[in-house]
Write a structure and sequence with these properties.
Order of helices and strands: EEEEEH
Oligomer: single chain
Strand content: 25-35%
Number of domains: 1
Number of strands: 5
Helix content: 10-25%
Distance between the termini: 28 Å
Shape: flat
């Protein structure tokens, strides 16, 4: 999977990002087949489920 590393202007931490899109309740991640390729269209479905913010906060507090 292709990741892009960007430096934050204020904290100087590296932020790793990935290309994703959603279609018909399915989330896809772009495969890392060729760096810097603008024509690469290989996408893989991933398991992803939205949860309410309150439920997320509760789960983070437990950890």
């Amino acid at each position: 999977m292709k990741t892009t590393k960007v430096r934050c202007a204020y904290c100087h931490d590296i932020i790793e990002t990935k290309y994703v899109y959603a279609h018909n309740n399915q989330v896809y991640v772009k495969n890392n087949t060729e760096p810097n390729s603008m024509t690469d269209t290989d996408w893989s479905p991933i398991n992803f489920q939205w949860i309410p913010v309150l439920q997320l906060q509760e789960r983070l507090e437990i950890q």
